[in-house]
Design a protein that fits this description.
This protein is an alpha+beta fold. The protein is built from six helices and eleven strands. Strand 8 and strand 9 form a beta hairpin.
């Protein structure tokens, strides 16, 4: 597959380089149409979206960020993930909170997000999240022809079409989840 958003990245089929994937990501890809997913090795110090885009020439508007949130209602906790374009912020306290039916929602503490997902902080991705976690996908992500997302580790990025992400078993497309920054 040819990726117009790759910039200077060398992209190969994701399953050709399982060494560039977190274990849960590699496992999940075997159940998907992995021919539609590419992976590119990057400098782990450049994994944060802004630095990555600036260095590799991939457009910020074609990057999506996956954030892990923790919702609470009484003594019940719900771990979930939100996937929004990098040019937006997830509406965690409004839309996500209401959608999950919790009283309080916030970004999950780093240690809980890492332990729960089995992925590296700064590399958490929607592909391979635990089965019980809801995945809220912004409608703009779902309709994007190509996106750059995490790979579960900081040393690589996945390139994937938005419809593949919207089709993940735990995914639910939510209009307006990503709010403009500023």
């Amino acid at each position: 597959m040819t990726w117009s958003i790759a910039g200077s990245l060398t992209v190969v089929p994701a399953l050709d380089r399982p060494d560039l994937l977190a274990e849960p990501v590699a496992k999940a890809l075997t159940g998907l149409d992995a021919t539609r997913v590419g992976v590119a090795e990057i400098d782990p110090d450049l994994a944060d979206t802004a630095e990555f885009c600036a260095h590799y020439g991939s457009p910020l508007a074609a990057s999506a960020n996956c954030v892990v949130i923790l919702g609470k209602r009484g003594d019940t906790e719900t771990m979930a993930a939100c996937l929004v374009l990098a040019t937006t912020r997830a509406d965690v306290n409004g839309l996500a909170r209401r959608h999950l039916g919790v009283r309080k929602a916030s970004f999950a503490p780093m240690d809980r997000a890492v332990e729960g997902s089995g992925m590296a902080y700064g590399g958490i991705t929607p592909i391979g999240l635990p089965a019980g976690w809801p995945l809220l996908v912004d409608a703009a992500v779902a309709t994007a022809p190509e996106l750059v997302i995490g790979s579960g580790v900081r040393g690589s990025k996945l390139l994937v079409p938005g419809d593949l992400l919207a089709g993940l078993s735990s995914a639910e497309v939510v209009e307006g989840l990503g709010r403009p920054v500023g």
